[in-house]
């Protein structure tokens, strides 16, 4: 529910879904802070010129040794930050057995660091602040972006798929641990987009299309504008107590989340490990 969001930090917002999400929240009158890497500085500067009041930070999430300092700096400048949206991600296409890239190990580490390790560390670093505000009666939220590929892995992305599956799992664990504190008013939300037309896979889209039999037979992406409209529509579909839904999945992403809840979650509850 967007009305419970006032000041939002969106990580990975120099393009694609992150940028479009930031622009929509800005249009709703929210205070928005966005981040991107050094090579994205011109895009971030342009966004700040176009969107009065938008703040941006240059933050490379793969630099893990500076992560806590970045978090501390943001909280110092925005002490009433109530929402963190961890959206940063990269995607590599390769085959482990046939023509693997010469820098396979380095590429895999970079992808896992960006997509899984850094988001977990970011969430852990902001969690005490968000929980503290929630104890004071401020509604707080943390969104983490997984993917439909967290639930439906494909052979094109041997590192991307497991990294997003890890995010989906971490969201559930973070939520369970937060709920165990007894504090109300803090939401942990897993966002699972489908295949969306963004620059994420632009450099290898022809290859993945070819592996599916060509562009005519390949799965086609949802337009970015359609995805953003559907995401914000689902954001407003709150639970009975007025809080944001635990999962926001569009298209195939929503189907994956639903299948997990109907299957694995019920089995997990039956084991007695969760309520």
TrEMBL record:
<dbReference type="InterPro" id="IPR036291">
    <property type="entry name" value="NAD(P)-bd_dom_sf"/>
</dbReference>
<dbReference type="InterPro" id="IPR002347">
    <property type="entry name" value="SDR_fam"/>
</dbReference>
<comment type="similarity">
    <text>Belongs to the short-chain dehydrogenases/reductases (SDR) family.</text>
</comment>
<dbReference type="GO" id="GO:0016491">
    <property type="term" value="F:oxidoreductase activity"/>
</dbReference>
<dbReference type="GO" id="GO:0016020">
    <property type="term" value="C:membrane"/>
</dbReference>
<dbReference type="Pfam" id="PF00106">
    <property type="entry name" value="adh_short"/>
</dbReference>
<protein>
    <submittedName>
        <fullName>Dehydrogenase</fullName>
    </submittedName>
</protein>
<keyword id="KW-0560">Oxidoreductase</keyword>
């Amino acid at each position: 529910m967007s009305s419970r969001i006032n000041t939002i930090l969106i990580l990975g917002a120099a393009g694609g879904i992150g940028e479009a999400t930031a622009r929509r929240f800005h249009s709703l009158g929210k205070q928005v802070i966005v981040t991107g890497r050094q090579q994205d500085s011109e895009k971030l500067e342009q966004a700040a010129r176009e969107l009065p009041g938008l703040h941006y930070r240059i933050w490379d999430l793969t630099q893990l040794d500076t992560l806590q300092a970045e978090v501390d700096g943001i909280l110092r400048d925005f002490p009433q930050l109530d929402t963190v949206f961890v959206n940063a991600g990269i995607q590599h296409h390769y085959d482990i057995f046939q023509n693997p890239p010469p820098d396979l190990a380095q590429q895999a580490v970079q992808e896992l660091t960006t997509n899984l390790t850094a988001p977990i560390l970011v969430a852990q670093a902001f969690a005490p602040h968000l929980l503290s505000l929630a104890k004071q009666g401020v509604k707080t939220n943390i969104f983490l972006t997984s993917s439909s590929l967290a639930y439906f892995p494909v052979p094109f992305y041997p590192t991307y798929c497991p990294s997003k599956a890890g995010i989906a799992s971490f969201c559930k664990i973070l939520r369970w641990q937060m709920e165990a504190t007894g504090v109300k008013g803090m939401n942990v939300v897993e966002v699972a987009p489908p295949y969306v037309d963004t620059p994420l896979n632009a450099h290898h889209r022809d290859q993945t299309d070819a592996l599916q039999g060509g562009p005519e037979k390949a799965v086609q992406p949802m337009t970015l504008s359609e995805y953003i409209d559907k995401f914000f529509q689902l954001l407003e579909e709150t639970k009975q107590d007025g809080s944001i839904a635990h999962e926001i999945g569009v298209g195939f992403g929503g189907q994956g989340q639903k299948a997990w809840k109907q299957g694995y979650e019920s089995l997990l509850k039956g084991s007695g490990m969760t309520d």
